[in-house]
């Protein structure tokens, strides 16, 4: 309640005035107490807030350290880094809030208490003093005797002066009271309103910050559900493996050492041996020995660099040592030195001696074939078909894929709104997207758009090449051809989500901006594509012919009519190591054509083998009618992804059947064209990998007949049925064996073996054998990045065993 004092009333110095003064003084005293308490509480709050911020900073630093420790897991690293940045922003907002509290509450109210209330107290002291003086003057004036004139005059003069002084003091005091009562309202409200606005700003900033973070949190939430399921499956598998291993008999572990020249890590054999030192004391030390790179090496500790004992095993011999006191010893002798070693048992000694002898024989056998030698000598490489000593990159992830895709013209901004530096992509459309547009695309369904992260997901080589074949510029020329004509506004970064969503649905679902071709334009397009296919086919006729494969050897007990193909069949065993050995040593008769190069003409078959039924020649016939499906059909054969995307935008059915051409589909024509990327594009757009033509042959049949190894690998990965038979009762495996195509035979048999293993292990088995996965990754890598390596007949040596 605001208490004011009337100036007229103060001059009267009435009891009402005195009562009002007393009430005001009590109210001001209580106000001072409350303000002092509020300022102290504010100081405590600010101190506690600073302590909270300090603790929060330590917590955020802990998150950053955890992110740095998780550099091998890009999802965790990127997510924790983003969370730490957001929490650091919240700490900054808290700091601003506490600074504002200090300015608005502490400083402002302290100033009011120190300045205005101090003036009130000083005025009150003067008022109390002059009031006492006035009271004394009145008493003295009343007591002056009548007969003493000089005392009466003195008392009267003092009273007059005192009253005059009282009037000035009391008016100043009342003015100070009224000013204080008026100012207290504005000062308190101003202070608190400023503090509340600081809170409003703080919560708005926090809301905006976490609104930007919400899409990432939702995405991680979805990934987290899958991670929980995967973790449960991994736990169950680990428990099963744990139980299985516990039941094994480890008493004969030393018999399990085997020499494997095609081991995944390039190390043919390894294990612990005692080594006799070459010093005068002849001490024995336990070391970790391994045979790798045609060398015998050992390590003291895991982090130590290997010490080479023998530089070249071809110059060495190995022998038993029975003339020393220790048991199970053997010696490796080179022209310059010898090395005495001791195994833990007789069986281990025999295994090591056999391994060294086999390494010597292998080194001599591979001396003339440098390519194979380099393959075997890759100490840290996987057991892939690539040569060289460095491990190859099987798939791209994170910044590598991002840089390759964003380097395509037009891909540096979101395809739909232009937001710079996009981090998402639609793999079936071949475009880049910002995070908001990617969420809208995901809501359309995978039959319209398949969204993938450019930084968090792993990218297979063929999928990355697909992205590089298309791009935002190509797709926008198709899907936005009539946008300006219709006067439609393209969204800009920062536009409301509902506007961007409406535009994207109109663009991709309704295809409102696609320009429909006339019948004449469609006819010209189809004819042009068929001519382009002819030019590509004719250009392949000038490629140098490949040498024929060796004449297959007869198996024991087989005759000329029942012969089998050794080059395709002999290396395939029921174990993963056998499969890998066959891949490393068996020549092939095919080379893969990618989007720029067609397949070489089929090489001649051996005279002793009946050739498979040839694929029907691709010939253009004038159709009864032209349609987008026909455009997709010929564009697939001509390897033109922009024309294929245009046909799909015009409403072409991805599994369109050409009834005038043996019921072939665009996917079968993509196989004929020899492009791996074209097949990948159709599969990403829901092409049926098992749809057959009039001869009962699916894409896998045609890829096997043409010897397109990369396409066979792709179709098997996408679930192609390798047991399907054509009208001649031939499966892809039958055709590959007849053609002596070892690589395709290997892929088909490995896929079949992997399928049988999964069926035997039950519905909760893993995705398959690791060797199966590695070999398919090898073929995928070569098919996309180095298809010439699939044609290894030029390296074939008929004298080689």
UniProtKB/TrEMBL annotation:
Positions of the Arf-GAP domain: 399-521
UniProt topology in membrane: Peripheral membrane protein
Biased composition, class Low complexity, residue ranges: 379-388
PH domain mapped to chain residues: 266-361
SUPFAM superfamilies: Ankyrin repeat, ArfGap/RecO-like zinc finger, BAR/IMD domain-like, PH domain-like
Region: Disordered, residue numbers: 367-396, 519-610, 780-801
Compartment(s): Cell membrane; Endosome membrane
Protein name per the record: Arf-GAP with coiled-coil, ANK repeat and PH domain-containing protein
Primary role: GTPase-activating protein for the ADP ribosylation factor family.
Organism of provenance: Xyrichtys novacula (Pearly razorfish)
């Amino acid at each position: 309640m605001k208490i004011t004092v009337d100036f007229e009333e103060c001059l009267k110095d009435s009891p009402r005035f005195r009562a009002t003064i007393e009430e005001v003084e009590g109210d001001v005293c209580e106000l001072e107490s409350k303000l002092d308490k509020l300022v102290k509480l504010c100081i405590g709050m600010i101190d506690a807030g600073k302590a909270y911020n300090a603790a929060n900073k330590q917590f955020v630093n802990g998150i950053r350290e955890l992110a740095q420790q998780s550099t091998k897991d890009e999802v965790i690293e990127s997510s924790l880094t983003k969370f730490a940045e957001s929490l650091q922003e919240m700490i900054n907002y808290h700091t601003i809030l506490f600074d504002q509290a200090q300015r608005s509450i502490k400083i402002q109210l302290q100033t009011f208490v120190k300045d205005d209330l101090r003036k009130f107290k000083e005025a009150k002291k003067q008022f109390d003093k002059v009031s006492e003086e006035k009271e004394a003057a009145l008493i003295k004036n009343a007591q002056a005797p009548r007969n003493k004139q000089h005392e009466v005059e003195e008392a009267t003069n003092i009273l007059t002066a005192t009253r005059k002084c009282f009037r000035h003091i009391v008016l100043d005091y009342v003015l100070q009271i009224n000013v204080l009562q008026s100012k207290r309202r504005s000062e308190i409200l101003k202070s608190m309103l400023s503090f509340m606005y600081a809170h409003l700003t703080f919560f708005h900033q926090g809301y905006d910050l976490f609104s930007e973070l919400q899409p990432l949190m939702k995405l991680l939430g979805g990934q987290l559900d899958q991670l929980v399921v995967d973790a449960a499956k991994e736990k169950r598998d680990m428990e099963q493996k744990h139980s299985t291993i516990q039941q094994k008999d480890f008493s004969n572990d030393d018999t399990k050492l085997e020499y494997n020249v095609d081991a995944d890590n390039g190390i043919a054999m390894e294990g612990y041996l005692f080594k006799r030192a070459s010093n005068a004391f002849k001490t024995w030390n336990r070391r970790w020995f391994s045979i790798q790179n045609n060398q015998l090496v050992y390590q003291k500790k895991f982090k130590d660099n290997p010490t080479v004992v023998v530089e070249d095993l071809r110059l060495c011999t190995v022998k038993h040592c029975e003339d020393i006191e220790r048991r199970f010893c053997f010696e490796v002798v080179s022209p310059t030195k010898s090395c005495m070693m001791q195994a833990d048992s007789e069986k281990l000694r025999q295994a090591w001696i056999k391994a060294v002898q086999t390494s010597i024989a292998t080194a001599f056998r591979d001396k003339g074939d440098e390519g194979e030698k380099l393959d075997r000598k890759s100490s840290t490489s996987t057991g892939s078909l690539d040569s060289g000593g460095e491990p190859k990159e099987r798939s791209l992830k994170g910044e590598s894929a991002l840089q390759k895709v964003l380097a395509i013209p037009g891909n540096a901004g979101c395809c739909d709104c232009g937001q710079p530096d996009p981090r998402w992509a639609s793999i079936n459309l071949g475009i880049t997207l910002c995070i908001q547009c990617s969420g809208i695309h995901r809501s359309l369904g995978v039959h319209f758009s398949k969204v993938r992260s450019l930084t968090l997901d792993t990218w297979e080589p063929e999928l990355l090449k697909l992205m590089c074949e298309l791009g935002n510029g190509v797709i926008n020329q198709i899907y936005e051809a009539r946008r300006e004509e219709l006067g439609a506004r393209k969204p800009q970064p920062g536009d409301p989500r509902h506007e961007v969503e409406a535009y994207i649905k109109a663009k991709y679902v309704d295809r409102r901006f696609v320009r429909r071709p006339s019948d004449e334009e469609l006819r010209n397009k189809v004819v042009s594509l068929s001519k382009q296919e002819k030019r590509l086919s004719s250009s392949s006729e000038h490629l140098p012919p490949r040498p024929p494969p060796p004449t297959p050897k007869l198996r024991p007990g087989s005759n000329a009519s029942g012969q089998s193909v050794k080059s395709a069949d002999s290396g395939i065993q029921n174990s993963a190591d056998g499969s890998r050995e066959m891949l490393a040593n068996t020549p092939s008769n095919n080379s893969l054509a990618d989007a720029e190069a067609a397949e070489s003409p089929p090489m001649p078959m051996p005279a002793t083998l009946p050739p498979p039924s040839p694929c029907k020649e691709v010939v253009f016939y004038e159709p009864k009618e032209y349609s987008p499906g026909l455009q997709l059909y010929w564009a697939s054969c001509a390897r033109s992804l922009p024309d294929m995307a245009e046909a799909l935008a015009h409403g072409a059915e991805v599994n369109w059947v050409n009834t005038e051409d043996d019921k072939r589909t665009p996917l079968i024509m993509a196989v004929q064209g020899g492009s791996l990327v074209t097949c990948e594009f159709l599969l990403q757009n829901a092409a049926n990998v098992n749809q057959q033509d009039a001869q009962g042959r699916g894409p896998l049949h045609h890829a096997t007949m043409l010897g397109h190894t990369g396409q066979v690998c792709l179709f098997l990965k996408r679930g192609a049925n390798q047991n399907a038979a054509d009208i001649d009762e031939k499966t892809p495996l039958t055709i590959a064996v007849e053609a002596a195509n070892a690589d395709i035979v290997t892929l088909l048999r490995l896929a079949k073996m992997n399928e049988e293993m999964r069926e035997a292990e039950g519905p909760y088995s893993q995705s398959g054998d690791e060797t199966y996965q590695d070999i398919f990754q090898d073929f995928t890598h070569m098919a996309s990045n180095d298809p010439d390596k699939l044609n290894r007949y030029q390296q074939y040596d008929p004298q080689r065993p």
